Amino acid sequence: MPNVYLMCGKICSGKSTRAQILREQFHAVVLSVDEITLALFGQNAGDQHDTYVERAEAYLYRKSLEILETGINVVLDWGFWTKAERDEARQFYRAHGIPYEFHYIQIDDAEWRRRIEKRNARIAAGTLDAYYVDDGLAAKFAAIFEPPAPDETDIRITRQGE
């Protein structure tokens, strides 16, 4: 039976990198909210961004079922930043009898800031298509993110500055 791997962590913590590792390891399809919203709206979603993200997530939940029905594993590459979002995902896949694993990428603040700077530099240089994270957006994400309790995740990876 195919499996769903759910990436949990702050923006710039390494979720997409982990998602690609799982894609290769388990021959999975990666479904990314950022990929869809950036493709459709670029950096210009404005006040509608949260609405677009909610719609993309709902679509990707449905699409994941279609992919899983073909026997292919799925990686959901979005943050699952709140306990409520993680609970919703668990309930969704349990209701469909689909096994899942939460992978939490934990990152210390110094490494998180370093990664944001590196990401923003790559975006500015045109070598990365991702959301630019200014101080306001970083503060918003930091305020929203609810670190999962140990019993909420199956795999916990810690990233620390060097």
Write the layout of secondary structure elements.
Elements: E1 4-8, H1 15-26, E2 28-32, H2 33-41, H3 49-69, E3 73-77, H4 83-95, E4 100-107, H5 109-124, H6 135-144, E5 155-159
Parallel strand pairs: 1-3, 1-4, 2-3, 4-5
Structural class: alpha/beta
Q: What kind of sheet is the major sheet?
A: 5 strands, parallel
Rg, alpha carbons: 15 Å
- The pLDDT mean sits at 92
Major sheet: arrangement of strands: 2-3-1-4-5
Low-confidence stretches: none
Outline: globular
Number of distinct helices: 6
Instruction: Supply the CATH superfamily name.
Output: P-loop containing nucleotide triphosphate hydrolases
Helix content: 40-55%
Secondary structure: number of strands: 5
**Could you name the CATH topology?**
Rossmann fold
Q: Which percent range describes the beta-strand content?
A: 15-25%
How many domains? The number is: 1
CATH architecture identity: 3-Layer(aba) Sandwich
Quaternary structure annotation: single chain
CATH class: Alpha Beta
Compact summary:
The protein has 162 residues and is of the alpha/beta class. It is built from six helices and five strands, in the order E-H-E-H-H-E-H-E-H-H-E.
Question: What structural keywords apply?
Answer:
Rossmann fold, 162 residues, alpha/beta
Overview of the structural elements:
The protein is α/β, with parallel strands linked by helices and 162 residues long. The chain has one domain (4-159): P-loop containing nucleotide triphosphate hydrolases (Rossmann fold). It is built from six helices and five strands, in the order E-H-E-H-H-E-H-E-H-H-E. The protein has a five-stranded parallel beta sheet with strand order 2-3-1-4-5, with helices on both faces. Helix 2 crosses helix 3.
